[in-house]
Amino acid sequence: MVSIYREIGKLTPKGKYRTLAIMHEEDLSAPLLRRFLAYAARGTQSNMERAEAGLFPSTDAQTEFARSLAGELKAIGIADVYLDDRSYVLARIPATPGLENKPSFGLCAHMDTASDAPGDGVKPIIHERYDGKTIVLKDGFIIDPATDKDLAACGDTDTIITSDGTTLLGADDKAGLAGIVTMAEWLIAHPEIPHGPIELLFSPDEETGHGMDHVPLDKIHSKAFYTVDGGQEGEIETECFNAWKAEVTFKGVSAHLGTARGKLVNAVTMASCFVASLPAQESPETTDGYLGYFCPLDIRGSVEEATVIAFLRDFDESGMERRLDRIDDIARAIEARFLGGRVSVKRTKQYVNMRKKVDAAPHVLALLQKAAERAGVETRMSPIRGGTDGSRLTELGIPTPNIFTGGHNYHSRTEWASLSQMTRMTTTLIELAKAWGE
């Protein structure tokens, strides 16, 4: 058995030496890759329509995956594993002797994959020693390093994992799941690594925005968590959008099309005009960084009634108020334009920016940055242009920053993951366990 750690001195840009705990690559990367491939091959998409109707989990595949994960956690030696009737998996890794009174922290990842691209029958492809060239997938899909700076930065010793192009890959968030379980397996196999108590939480339906709707808070001991659900190596995220959903309903008046003049009020036309009135310069495809947006996600209906579902996103609370008011203004304008028609708006808050509550617990971020440095990872802060289960956990009183996983191009057929980045994610988690135990 190779040595668990080899301690090396590394000269930093500031000229100071620091000691890094570096895992032997085969010790972590091989089981991590096997586990990730097995998880990715399982179709576990959630379903927005079923989730909105109150079904939780929204798909049976998530329930089956939850049972499998609970069984795997027990198999690697975790005795305290809880699987509830909502398909949440909660497990506890006990502290090493002498550290039982150290504060507990948690790691969270979600089991579902997005429904934006096909997600069943995933066939992961391993590109060993990536050569820097364009990756050609089925159905005309390509991943081009000329336009993907993260892929271009991968070295020729890296292993890249993609789907075959007919589905998404599912690195969001099966890379996070694989990293957490591999970390747990490592800690249990090596009790000489000191750490305090650790909780693991695997949730369904994160992609539908309902991942924390039924979380068993009464069974969670930790006062701080980390979602392992990020992207590029080194990214740490402590802020996210404020998020609202607007369901806009249009009531029309039907009439025979041959004698419709002066009578017909077409709800489909009303809905189309509403969507066309949303500011095009404030859409997901025209914004980045800290810019918010309006996004119509679904439009359906008939002459008598049609509905538009729109997502509103903004990092600033006052900016979100402006967006909510804008939706109301457009709705009233459409109603005034189509005499006899009616428009109603139903607002639903989805999650809020977690920054204030994470900033109120600075030690949570400080320990993560310490762990990443020890793992040889250079960190940088970036906003989440979306939300995670951590957004909701933070709102519920448990500050929960987000950690990178090494996955890229989420929710698409061109999704890919870097094995070296996934390995450093797992190393960071191990170092985080040590840091919380100090």
Number of helices: 11
Number of domains: 2
Question: Which range best describes the helical content: under 10%, 10-25%, 25-40%, 40-55%, 55-70% or over 70%?
Answer: 25-40%
Distance between the termini: 27 Å
CATH superfamily of the largest domain: Zn peptidases
Low-confidence stretches: 1-23
Any overview of this molecule?
The strands form five sheets. Strands 3-4-10-5-11-18-12-17 form an eight-stranded mixed β-sheet, sandwiched between helices. It starts with a strand and ends with a helix. It is built from eleven helices and 20 strands. It is globular and about 80 Å long. A hairpin with a 5-residue loop joins strand 7 and strand 8 (142-143). Helix 1 crosses helix 11. Helices cover 31% and strands 23% of the residues. It has 438 residues and is an alpha+beta fold. It folds into two domains: 5-240 and 353-436, Aminopeptidase (3-Layer(aba) Sandwich), CATH 3.40.630; 242-351, 2-Layer Sandwich (Alpha-Beta Plaits).
